[in-house]
Structures are given as C-alpha cells and as structure tokens.
Amino acid sequence: MTKRNLPASASVATEGEGQKLIAPAAIRNSAALCDLLDRVAPKSGRALELASGTGQHVLAFAQRLQGLDWQPSEITAERRASILAYTQDLPNVAPPIHLNATAQGWRDVVDPQDLIILINLLHLISREEAATLITEASQVLKPGGRLVLYGPFMRSGRLTSEGDQRFHDALILQDPEIGYKDDTQIAALLSDAGLEIVEVAELPANNLAFVAKKPTT
Asked: From CA 192, how far away is CA 196, in angstroms rounded?
C-alpha cells in the first residue's frame, strides 16, 4: 500500500495494556459486525481479515464465530504485535501475517479462503488500490466463499451526512487519490472481479457492508 498522508482522525489507536492498541471505532462497531457475520458468513472453514488493525475485531469475530479458523493480517509490526496480544490464547486464530492487501500478487502467498473481511480501509486507499484488493481477494476465495467490505461510502455519488462530508473533505485535502468510494463504484469493482453481491447492509454510524459471493460454477 502506498504510504498516505492521512489526517489524524483517519486511523485512531491509543496504547492499552502491554502491546495492545485500542481503537475506539472497533469498540463501537464490533457488535454490529459480529451480528452481520453471524448471519452471512460460512459456519466453518478459513477466514482471512485484511488490514486487521489493532486486533480487536478479529478477537470479537473469533469468539463469536468459533467454527472458523481466522487469519489476521497487517502491514506494520506494531499492529501485528497488538493483534497477537489480543488473540494469542484463542485456538482458532493464527498468528498475524505481514500482508499488503493493495499489492498485486498476494493471492499467491495466501491459502484459499471461505471468508475474507475488510473493515474501514477502502476510503483510505486509491480507486486503483481498491480494485487490486478486490481482484486479489476474488482469486483467493473458494467457490461459494464470501467477501465482506465494511466502511463509509457515498450513495449514488452523494455524501449523506455532515460528518461524512467533513471526513471525506479532510481525506482528499491530504491526498486527492483517496476518500469515500461510491456504492455504485464498489458494485462495479465486485462485478468486474467475478463476484455476485448478496447483500448491501446498512449498519450503524451511516456505514455500509457489501457482502459478495464467489460463484460455485
């Protein structure tokens, strides 16, 4: 992933106990995401979280969806250490791996997956990087596997709250290549990657979750 000059509000994490980092956003949205995954994710198999951040999400997911074997991933060593601190005692979570989800070719170093999830990253990367991420994820998914993309999005080219407008403006002021992606744009990228949209779920804080499926034939 290209090193971006992001506003301070884009990726907030504070120090917790030991090597654990704490992201307030993860505290706020974990329950809603667990409820979504409990409904749309496969009950067993392999699950990969891209850009796992602090590790709070994968901790919650692994505790709720115990039939899945979880593989967290992150670029930075500090965040991988935080993920490990949160999950090292869970039998269904592997140690985090270094993975740049926006780089071409990561499909070649990851085992086939039944579920791939990405939380709050697409607005922090370029459209080209988003297309690469979705294309690579599609190649990693097993037939019938699910891809879940969660975060803030435009709706038909429009930002639907003042808070979203301020955040989007702050992002593109720092880097004009990033910012909120449009829901129609994401739908097109998923289709181009050979994935079928199963559901677009409205979640708290004006966020969306795209749930897409890799065809079985």
From this structure: 10
Q: Which two tokens stand for residue 5?
A: 């000059």
Q: Domain boundaries in the chain?
A: 8-213
CATH 3.40.50.880 fits 8-213, yes or no: no
Q: How many CA atoms lie within 13 A of 51 on its CB side?
A: 22
- State how beta strands 153-154 and 181-182 pair: parallel
Residues 141 and 176: their CA atoms lie apart, in Å, by 31
- What is the reported pLDDT for 17? 81
Work out the number of other CB atoms within 10 angstroms of the CB of residue 99.
Answer: 21
User: Residue 45: left if φ>0, alpha if ψ -120 to 50, beta else—which one?
Assistant: left
Mean pLDDT per block of 10 residues along the chain (217 residues) reads 54 75 92 97 98 97 98 96 97 98 96 97 96 98 98 95 94 94 98 98 95 94
Give me the pLDDT at residue 31, please.
96
